[in-house]
Design goal:
The chain has about 525 residues and is of the alpha+beta class. It folds into three domains: about 40-110; about 115-220, Beta Barrel (OB fold (Dihydrolipoamide Acetyltransferase, E2P)), CATH 2.40.50.140; about 225-520, no CATH class. Helices cover about 60% and strands about 10% of the residues. It is built from 16 helices and nine strands. The strands form two sheets. A five-stranded mixed beta barrel has the order 1-3-4-6-5. The chain has a two-stranded antiparallel sheet with strand order 8-9. Helix 8 runs antiparallel to helix 9. The longest helix is centred in the C-terminal third of the chain and has 28 residues, at about 370-395. It starts with about 40 loop residues before the first helix and ends with a helix.
């Protein structure tokens, strides 16, 4: 989009600074129009990824043919009418679909061929060697008297079955008894393969262990450091009592093992579950702190962006580089880096480019609920929260305006997506998010700080943990009170009808608020 297309009145001198991030330059009045050129590319790439995952085989070929014919006809028609902007748009859309389908087809071929796929398809008993990819999750005993089990993802190196040992590549889910191997640990597991339950699963299959897991090597390098930090952090946080300690681990590291079941249910009703999962807000909060420190040191703008990206990398290593964490890191950094670069209007283009890149790297994200929620929330905040904050700030103050605008935008975008897993709407979700907003930053900063300091200075880490625990205590109080309030969960129509209805309501509310704000500015 070219500059200066908005009327001068939309950027009055009384308009507050567009950035709430320390160290971010003031909003450029000439950066009026949002750059939405890559949004169609992201949408078509997403559609291509979903088709690849859910409709392989004949459906993929039919989709490719339909897209080529449809977009080819549209491009020819646009060229004949000499509307030059339509031709690149159609070409980009076609490129996105074809690229997603092509990458998805390659990934599916790799998953369905080779020794690992053969063993899974035949449901053989095999011995696999590989590296633990994430934190093991403890599973309760399925019946009285049975032993607890753990579940974790394994990057497979070799498969030994039916008298042959062959090199293999792919991820499987392991269900095993006994101890919990740390991420980065090399293990040897014997068990029987099971095929994945649905096409949307990333793993090639599941291995149900029939013998104890054998450790062949421990974590090395960075993984050893990460393990030491996590162990020390858990030891320190264990000294913080009650809900505060359990939530602090979740807020800082995404570890919900100490969160009580009733509190977890309250978080779902209150719409606060994103606080105990590593989301884009974690990276935005830490990035904002780092950006502010870099600005205080008078570092140039590229150095500030580099410092933010370095902090994101360290946080990814600390919480574990699972796909959901990588997605949250990228999404949480998009808007912040765009603001640091002095181009807030380019944030939608950066978000769209990020979506395209991630979908081409991992087509299974197209059907991932967490990815959809992250994109929806980030896009809504980029498009809606900024204008709302600027328009409400003169009356409410910038802090309160942002505290209302951000959760409202995110909830309007994520509500229809959440209906896919739970056909109800939280009546007080926005209020709950507004109430806990002042505590989220301190809880995240003190929690991550306690984790980083714990291996070298446990005493200081304990002080930080108690400070973060105080913020988490308030979050827990809000969650429990809101969940017990009358009408906290309102039933909604399930299925496509309910989603369409809630989308219509969300769009109507957003449009009314934008028009009301524009009328006030005039």
């Amino acid at each position: 989009m070219s500059r200066g297309r908005r009327p001068v009145r939309d950027a009055t001198p009384q308009e507050p600074d567009a950035s709430s991030v320390p160290g971010v330059p003031a909003r450029d009045a000439t950066e009026g129009s949002l750059d939405l050129r890559l949004v169609p590319l992201a949408a078509t790439t997403w559609a291509g990824g979903a088709v690849t995952v859910l409709c392989p085989g004949v459906a993929v070929a039919a989709a490719v043919a339909a897209v080529i014919v449809l977009l080819g006809a549209a491009s020819l028609a646009a060229a004949r009418r000499r509307r030059s902007p339509a031709l690149p748009a159609a070409a980009l859309a076609a490129l996105g679909v074809l690229a997603a389908l092509g990458v998805g087809a390659v990934v599916r071929h790799e998953r369905s061929s080779g020794p690992l796929a053969e063993a899974v398809l035949g449901e053989w008993t095999a011995t696999v060697r590989g590296t633990v990819a994430d934190d093991p999750v403890m599973l309760p005993a399925s019946w009285s008297g049975s032993a607890d089990r753990v579940r974790y993802t394994l990057h497979v190196d070799t498969v030994q079955a039916r008298g042959r040992r062959r090199a293999a590549h792919g991820d499987i889910v392991v269900l095993a008894g006994g101890g919990s191997p740390a991420p980065g640990t090399g293990v040897l597991v014997t068990g029987r393969f099971r095929q994945p339950g649905t096409r949307s699963e990333r793993s090639v299959g599941t291995l149900v262990a029939t013998a104890p897991t054998a450790t062949v090597r421990g974590p090395t390098g960075v993984q050893r450091w990460v393990g030491a930090v996590r162990t020390a952090a858990r030891g320190v946080v264990a000294q913080v009592p009650g809900d505060a300690g359990g939530l602090l681990l979740g807020v800082a590291l995404g570890d919900t093992s100490r969160v009580q079941g009733d509190l977890s249910d309250a978080f779902q009703v209150a719409g606060l579950t994103h606080l105990v999962a590593v989301s884009g807000s974690h990276f935005a909060i830490i990035g904002s702190l780092v950006a502010g420190a870099a600005a205080a040191c008078r570092l140039p703008r590229p150095a500030r962006a580099g410092a933010v990206l370095l902090a994101d990398v360290l946080l990814v290593l600390l919480v574990g580089p699972q796909p959901s964490v990588l997605r949250a890191a990228v999404m949480g950094s998009v808007a912040l880096v765009g603001l640091l670069a002095g181009r807030p209007s380019r944030a939608p283009a950066a978000l769209a480019a990020t979506v395209v890149t991630l979908l081409l790297v991992d087509p299974w994200l197209a059907v991932d609920l967490g990815f959809t929620l992250s994109v929806a929330a980030t896009g809504a905040i980029v498009l809606l929260a900024g204008p709302w904050t600027r328009r409400w700030a003169p009356r409410l103050g910038r802090g309160i305006a942002a505290g209302v605008a951000v959760p409202l935008a995110a909830q309007l975008a994520c509500g229809p997506v959440l209906l896919a897993v739970r056909p109800q709407v939280g009546a007080y979700t926005i209020v709950a998010n507004m109430l806990v907003a002042p505590a989220v930053g301190p809880a995240t900063v003190f929690g991550v700080g306690a984790a980083m300091v714990a291996p070298v200075w446990p005493g200081a880490a304990l002080v930080l943990a108690h400070l973060g625990g105080a913020a988490c205590w308030w979050v827990a109080v809000v969650a429990r009170v809101v969940a017990r309030a009358p009408g906290a969960a309102v039933g909604w129509a399930p299925g496509v009808v309910g989603v369409v209805a809630l989308v219509a309501v969300s769009v109507a509310v957003a449009a009314l608020l934008l028009r009301a704000g524009a009328a006030q500015e005039r």
